[in-house]
Design a protein that fits this description.
6 helices, elongated, mainly alpha, 2 strands, two-stranded antiparallel ribbon, 434 Repressor (Amino-terminal Domain)
Amino acid sequence: MVGEVVDDFGERIKKARIQKNWTQKELANEIKEREILIKKIEKGDLIPEDQVRVKLEKTLGISLLDVSDDEVKSQKGGRISTTLGDIIKIKKE
């Protein structure tokens, strides 16, 4: 997914963590990262790298990316790919 990390990523992470009644240490253990990393991310001192961001999103059930409407529409459409059946039909015609 293409997009930038939202400005309030630290607040979103902290809020979701508190809703689960987890300490920063418990969240760190859950995603197999260091507690200091969670502290820095929640304070907004550090923007999470993609790998950490994905783990946080999955574990906390939140989205940390700001995706424009155009990008969402283009992703919902999916890709149209040619299948072997399509090639056979083309050659017969």
